[in-house]
Amino acid sequence: MKAPSPKAARLVPLLRGAGTALGLAGLVASGVLIVATTRLERVASQLSGAVETVSVAAQAERALLMHSRECDLLGTTKLPEHRAKRDRARQELDRWLTELAPLAESPIERELFQRIRSDVSAYIAAREQSESGNTSAGDSGLAVDGLVSAAGRALATLAQLNHEESQTFQRAAEFENTRANVIGWSMVGFVLLVGAGVFYLLNRQIEAPLQRMKERIVGLEAGKLAPLPLDGPAEFRGIAVVFNELIAQLQLQRESQLRFLAGIAHDLRTPLQAIKLSAELLGDHLSAEQRATVRTIDRQISQLDRQVGDLLDTTRIESGQLELRISEQDLAQLVETSAKVFRGLSARHRIQVTAPDKPIIYPCDPTRIGQVLNNLLSNAIKYSPSGGEITAALSASASGVEFAVTDQGIGISAEDLPHVFEPFRRTAATREAIPGVGLGLSVARRIAEAHGGSIEVKSVPAAGSSFTLSLPKTPPR
After folding, report:
1. What is the pLDDT of residues 265-299, one digit of tens each?
2. By the 8 A CB rule, do 349 and 383 touch?
């Protein structure tokens, strides 16, 4: 036994490698997506911080202006409600400045915040001195206004700076989002590409060899002895080596059987022809009753001759020596000729032919197609022992031509139906009661296939069968 090629991959490592490739592709895609998502989250966080800084600075500036306004109104009106609003504005100003402190992250922002804190503290101190009467009203008003303006400008500058940063971060976020989408789809394509590559590899290395192996094994049942190619994983190649050795042994046995059958058929045909000729010569010198007996002998010899012919055709077909002599023929005439041959064989059967009025010209081997028609009609008579009508219908369509023979005989059981075209295969119900060796339908199918066509059968037990020969519009050369 030949050992599998050492270069062939083994099945388990191949599957493990395919799984590893898919896993690595998934990890790479996940890692790239995580990096892209992290960058997008960082930019989004920076954008959120800038927007929050703008909002807090605006709130602080509003609280500062509210505090200054309420202090002026309190100095003018001395009303308690303005004192309460002033105190509330002071609390809000302190709160917003407390929230603004951690938002000032860059050196420029921290410097601005220190200036704001310093100006606000100076402003509060100036207000307190003004309220306590330690400074003159004019000097106090100028100092307070200057400090409020300075603190407001610093807050406005901080807000403007973060507004510009927010726009920058927004553009960066849009860019990162676009890039994340591109990377995401690219990773999807990458994973799909890797998956397609793995699928192609597995299909080529595993599925395709398995499919070929299945076809060869199924072909054995139909008598097709085709070897397996030595491809795929090492395990498959080992199976192929054993399978091909089995095929080689079966081919040797088949060749021996074919030679044996061909010898028997050839040896039988010579005495059969001699007996047939002798019967024909005797018919001229016998009485009517004796001639009827001779005609019966002649019919039996003709039937036996057809069986021997089927045997010879089987050996030719199996050895690849079936030769077709193609010529333009009128199929309607071929059908009518075959029907005439069998109309006089049985008084219990009525053979009806239906065909188009105009000729159907078709390129075929008339002898071989006639052999198929004769076989189908012969079987229709043989498997209708009680008689009845047999219909031979010829039809033409755009796809080709069909010839159907329908009988009212014993039919074929469902379990036997798939095997009727196998050589030497006969149903259990007819094996003893009806003579034959089971080669006619096998030969007919091979002749139909040689013309590029097929034969199909439909049957109902105890109700009859219908065999349809289908030939394509343009037969193969």
Report:
1. 667 767 767 776 776 666 666 677 777 777 677 76
2. no
